[in-house]
Amino acid sequence: MRCRAGPGADLPPADACLELSGAAGAARRAPARTATGGTIMLAGTVSPGVALDWAAQDVVRGLLTVRGVHNYTPADLAEAVAWTGSAAARPPVADVLGPVFPPAEVDAALAGAARTTALRGGVRPLEK
C-alpha cells in the first residue's frame, strides 16, 4: 500500500498513500494515486512553500481522508506497528477477500482476481 509517483506510477491507486520523503511532487500527486475511500498521510512535507494544488472535489468525490503527522518519534512508529497486529486493526476481511495464494503462485492469484467477484485477492507474505 504505497503511493508511487515516479517509476511504476502506472500501478493502480493504493488504499493508502504515505508521503514520508518531503518530495512536493509526491504530495501533489497523492489524490490521483489514492483509491476511492483511501487515506493520504503527509509527514515529510513540513517545509514552507509547498503548494499542493489539489482540487477539493478530488478529495470529496474520492471520499479521501487526509492526515498530517508532525514531530513523530521512533516510539510512535513502534506503537503503530504494534497496532497493526492487534485485533482492532483486523477488519472483517472474510467478507471481501477471495482466495489467498502463496508468493510462488502470484500468477494464479492475478488470474483468479480477474475471474472473481471478491473485492480483494490475497498473496500470503513469506514466513521469516
UniProtKB/TrEMBL annotation:
Top-rank taxon: Bacteria
The protein, known as: Zinc-binding dehydrogenase
Organism: Actinomadura rayongensis
